[in-house]
Amino acid sequence: MTFNRPVVLFCTLLFVLIGLPAHAESGFPHHDVQVVFDQKTGQLGVTDRLTISPTANLTVVLADWLEIDRADANGVPLSVDRVGRHWRISSANGPIDALTISAQGTVPAMPPADQRRGVSGAAADAWDGSYLPSYAAWIPDTGAAHVTYRLKVRIDGSLRPVATGRILSETDLDGAFEAVFAADYPTEAPSLFIGPYTVTERIVDGTRIRTYFHEEIAGSADHYITQSADYIRIFAEMIGAYPFDDFHVVSAPLPVGLGFPNMTYIGRTIVPLPFMRGRSLAHEVLHNWWGNGVGIDYATGNWSEGLTTFFADYGLAERQGPDAAREMRLGWLRDYAALPTSDDTPVSAFTSKTHQASQVIGYNKTAHIFHMLRLEIGPAAFEQGIRAFWNDHRFKTAAWKDIQHALETASGRDLDWFFSQWVGQAGAPELTLAETRVEQTGGKHTLHVTLRQKGPLYRLTVPIIVETEGEAIHEQVRLSSAEETFSIELESAPLRVRVDPDFDVFRRLLPGESPPILRDITLARNVDATVLGSDEGFASAARALTGRLSKNPTWVPKRAPTGPAIVIGNSADIVSYVRDHLESDIPEPVSESAAAAWTFRSPEGHPVLLIRAIDTAGIERMMRPLPHYGSRSYVTFEDGRATDKGVWKTTDSPLSRDLSAQKQ
Predict the structure, then answer these.
(1) How far apart are the first and last CA of the chain?
(2) 135 and 276 belong to one structural domain
(3) 12, 167, 275, 499: which one has the fewest Cβ atoms less than 10 Å from its Cβ?
(4) Residue 250 CA to chain centroid, in angstroms?
(5) pLDDT at residue 547 greater than cutoff 90
(6) 587: domain CATH number?
(7) In this structure, is residue 617 part of a structural domain?
(8) CA–CA separation, 619 vs 542, rounded Å?
(9) Which GO annotations describe the biological process of this protein (predicted)?
(10) Chain center to CA of 624
């Protein structure tokens, strides 16, 4: 269906005077919603029978495009006053536990496809899909964090609805389709999506797994169903049974990746991409445990994204092997090294991903903290504690203190010091290998290692590997002061010592451990930007691309870098710029490509991002993908598709030292 006019949403919200369900007695409003959508006219009608705790005055929030035209309780009119999005409904006859509200409005039209970024916060409608998320207040929001509901949707035409909640029934009618969804557990208000979907289904271990895909990507359905089933099985074994009856993957008309209870909502252009089909899908599946199965106490910090990153993203890396897991931890530390000090906040202050800096803290650092926590108390106690946390807080709201309590109980240890230093305060320690000394007595050797830490003092468990003539010795030392010396007894002469070689400690990387990456520039508060050449079309596209990479770039003429910088030009202009304004050779991608972006540090140590393209179209094709490669030192493109990417090799770490000259 093609909409050539705004779609009118008629909301008749009918609260009938009936016995109070157990959920309402427990403080959860219960919605019994009926929706009718006419594909030919584009009209949507909603009837919501809501049961609430008795009150004489009720304030609800509705989207500003909705207008209440009637309110009554058991046929008796109620007083209605509006202030913006807030509606105050009053009963002159004392408390009521049911009322009728009728409202209608026009759903805002979705912008054209190339202008839909950032639309996901409100309801919107277009020919390729209608988007009515719970937080858009398309039904009255009483302020309750959790509700229960039954949602019946009738679609007149060929479109298909999908909503959060369990599928109770589906019926093909003559020229229409009807489906019923329900949530008899406390959860967020229902989210409803309608579109020209091809639906594919498979029942796996009792869970109904579906894809609702637009026709051009319907061929991806089998892959998504198989992968979703695998992830559900893996996470259920780790944590506990999958908490819902259904799981849906829905293609969206918006360029988003959003998680809802028993559902993930993914932009139709994103669905075919490799990253979405793998690790990102695992992340979204796991949110059905963390974030949707156990709610988040946002007032004390969002623990969910970090725990999900640890179990999903990092968990998949661990399944690939220790090298992949090590590389992910190192990647987290590289991202943190690029974070400006002014953006370094406590983990407990993170609530949601609003920019790249918040992802570094709320996702990466938090996941690394869970890695250290598992090392601290051991995998058995960690698994036991996480499973207990899940069982105790399923369909409840939980805070960091609840995770701490579960892991303290499982391990039998006081972990207040751990959570205080890692969750409650910003920053990270900086470790240095201050001194090494080898002593030999008879046939025995003793290695004395002095470690220092800068900044606020942390209690750290630091891995040390000593390579000897016979074997590699693995030790762990406890560092809690500014400087401590540790002695390691050895059977044979030590050849080399490595401190935290696998990046198990969340810390500030030292020079030599952290090559430049795109985030060194994109996270910087002050970035100079330069476009080389005189073609105005190229320059306009380059400015738009720079705006996607940096919040507030300062445009400067061609000159040597004096701080973090972005320089964009064609191949000849880039070569000329490097020759005229840089004092040394710089690395660049090895592969030949039509377009590339790569980083280096100027002789003064400033991170610089060079972006090369043949023409304006080449710049435009990098507009969407390039910002997603912040953890890379370089990336090359052909027709907007990444063909090569990577991180520059580093020199030997300052935390590694050759001991062969210290033999005695």
Answers:
(1) 83
(2) no
(3) 275
(4) 18
(5) yes
(6) 3.30.379
(7) yes
(8) 6
(9) peptide catabolic process
(10) 18
Q: Give the integer Cα–Cα distance in Å for 231 and 237.
A: 10
Are the C-beta atoms of 497 and 466 separated by less than 8 Å?
Answer: yes
Other CB atoms within a 10 A radius of the CB of residue 190 amount to: 27
* Shared-domain flag, residues 33 and 133: yes
Judged on CB neighbours under 10 Å (0-12, 13-18, 19+), 113 is: middle
Residue whose pair of structure tokens reads 């807080």 in the numeric block:
393
Candidates 258, 104, 285; CA nearest to 193 is 258
Q: Which of 243, 267, 289 is the last residue of a domain?
A: 289
* Exposure b/e, 246-258, CB count within 10 A at least 16 = b: bbbbbbbbbbbbb
Give residues with Cβ within 8 angstroms of 462, minimum separation 6: 431, 451, 476, 477, 478, 479, 499, 500, 505
Domain that holds residue 26: 7-196
- Tell me the mean pLDDT in the region 126-135: 90
Q: Can you tell me the distance from the alpha carbon of 166 to that of 283, in angstroms, rounded to the nearest whole number?
A: 21
Q: Are 387 and 340 in contact (CB under 8 A)?
A: no
The residues that bridge with 658 in the sheet, in sequence order, are 496
- Among candidate residues 372, 400, 422, the one where a domain is terminated: 422
611 close to 568: Cβ distance less than 8 angstroms: yes
Mean pLDDT (whole number) for 191-215: 96
Strand-strand pairing, 176-187 and 147-156 = antiparallel
Q: What does the alpha-carbon distance between residue 29 and residue 52 come to, in Å, rounded to a whole number?
A: 5
Q: Which of 35-39, 146-150, 567-571, 604-608 has the lowest mean pLDDT?
A: 35-39
Average pLDDT for residues 392-413, to the nearest whole number?
97
Judgement on whether residues 46 and 185 belong to the same structural domain of the protein: yes
CA distance 408 to 312: 23
Helix (H, G, I), strand (E, B) or coil at 485: strand
Same domain, 172 and 61: yes
Pairing of strands 246-252, 207-213: parallel
Q: Are residues 43 and 91 in the same domain?
A: yes
Q: For residue 208, tell me if it sits in a domain.
A: no
